[in-house]
Write a structure and sequence with these properties.
single chain, alpha/beta, Rossmann fold, seven-stranded mixed beta sheet, 11 strands
Length: about 280
């Protein structure tokens, strides 16, 4: 089966083949970007259960190590005392709260479909790609967000538009070339779909490999400063609702893969840091 829609990254329309019919997952014949065509409305996906139940551990145990790297990067690349930072898809504001502790002069803002409140941080409820900002930002972060958007080109162009001329963007997303994804595909072909369906869940629409993410950024006004693969903390692993013995097996297999891939750069996530090209 061939997708009737163009690749969201390179816009190729020829021979984009079906990878999985149940989840409507396709692979681009030109750039190998993998994308899904979800029929579930975003409002139904990002309800309170998304934070409290479905991805409970992810939000209970935020990636403090990653937050520290972002803070160090910002400080090493900017001398502005009151610089402005926008966190796209800010969730509950974990990154923004972390940054505010040591940088009270920074102007911190966050935007998300879900509502949020805070005294020292500006929170906006809305869709980043269509929201009309009345200002620009020095730094924009987006942690595990771009894989959720229908139109990543529109998303990246919006990043470009709301950044100052010397602005930088720090994006974290999935790595579809990782060992985890490759293993899930193998298990799917062997008849065990659970790991595959966990990774290609209907709220993930874009499944970036390193090349497709770099291609997306460079074609839409950015120079890539660095890009690398990594994993998230063990404690943040969300285990599906299955019997206890399967939960333990699931969790410890993932931990084992994380330990192995930490040494070889094949982590399940990737980070890309870019500078606006002027």
């Amino acid at each position: 089966m061939i997708s009737p829609h163009p690749c969201p990254v390179c816009q190729n329309v020829q021979n984009n083949c079906l990878q999985d019919q149940i989840l409507n997952v396709f692979i681009c014949a030109s750039c190998n970007h993998v994308f899904s065509e979800s029929i579930v409305d975003a409002v139904d996906i990002y309800n309170p259960d998304y934070f409290l139940i479905e991805h409970k551990n992810w939000f209970l145990y935020p990636n403090i190590e990653l937050f520290g790297k972002i803070e160090s990067f910002i400080k090493d690349n900017s001398s502005i005392a009151n610089l402005s930072v926008l966190d796209v898809g800010c969730g509950r504001g974990d990154l923004l709260n972390f940054l505010h502790k040591d940088n009270p002069l920074w102007c911190l803002s966050g935007i998300d479909i879900s509502e949020n409140k805070g005294q020292d941080i500006i929170y906006i409820s809305g869709n980043f790609s269509s929201y009309e900002f009345g200002e620009k930002f020095n730094i924009i972060t987006g942690l595990m967000v771009i894989e959720h958007v229908v139109d990543p080109v529109l998303f990246v162009r919006k990043l470009f538009d709301v950044l100052y001329s010397d602005g930088k963007v720090f994006l974290v997303t999935i790595n579809s070339d990782s060992v985890m994804y490759r293993l899930a595909n193998i298990l799917r072909r062997l008849g065990w779909r659970a790991p595959y369906e966990r990774l290609y869940h209907h709220h993930h629409l874009q499944h970036f490999n390193n090349a497709s993410l770099r291609n997306l950024m460079e074609k839409n006004g950015f120079n890539v400063i660095k890009q690398y693969n990594h994993n998230f903390p063990f404690s943040a692993i969300d285990v599906p609702s299955v019997p206890l013995i399967f939960k333990l097996a699931y969790k410890y297999v993932i931990i084992g893969l994380f330990i192995i891939t930490n040494f070889f750069g094949g982590g399940v996530n990737q980070t890309i840091v870019c500078k606006k090209n002027i």
